Amino acid sequence: EAPANEKPEVVKTHLRNMIVLPEMVGSIVGVYNGKTFNQVEIKPEMIGHYLGEFSVTYKPVKHGRPGIGA
């Protein structure tokens, strides 16, 4: 438990398949995406979802101008 005006301590995990439980609301979890730990603050609307849903494992593609061979 953290004081009222401070953020709670980050708990790091590789368990992307863990379901968010009501006891976890308000905590900050570092979810591993294969490279780094993304900090996720658990909110009430996240209950029942997997932790992995809140930490993207890939970099979304940004399409630019077509290059050679396009």
TrEMBL record:
- UniProt GO BP: ribosomal small subunit assembly; translation
GO CC annotation, single: cytosolic small ribosomal subunit
Q: Record's InterPro entries?
A: Ribosomal_uS19, Ribosomal_uS19_CS, Ribosomal_uS19_SF
Q: Which Gene3D superfamilies match?
A: 30s Ribosomal Protein S19, Chain A
The family database entries (SUPFAM superfamilies) matched by this protein are listed as: Ribosomal protein S19
Q: Which domain of life is it from?
A: Eukaryota
Q: Name one GO molecular function term.
A: RNA binding
Alphabetical UniProt keywords: Ribonucleoprotein, Ribosomal protein
| Similarity comment text for this entry | Belongs to the universal ribosomal protein uS19 family.
Protein name per Swiss-Prot or TrEMBL: 40S ribosomal protein S15
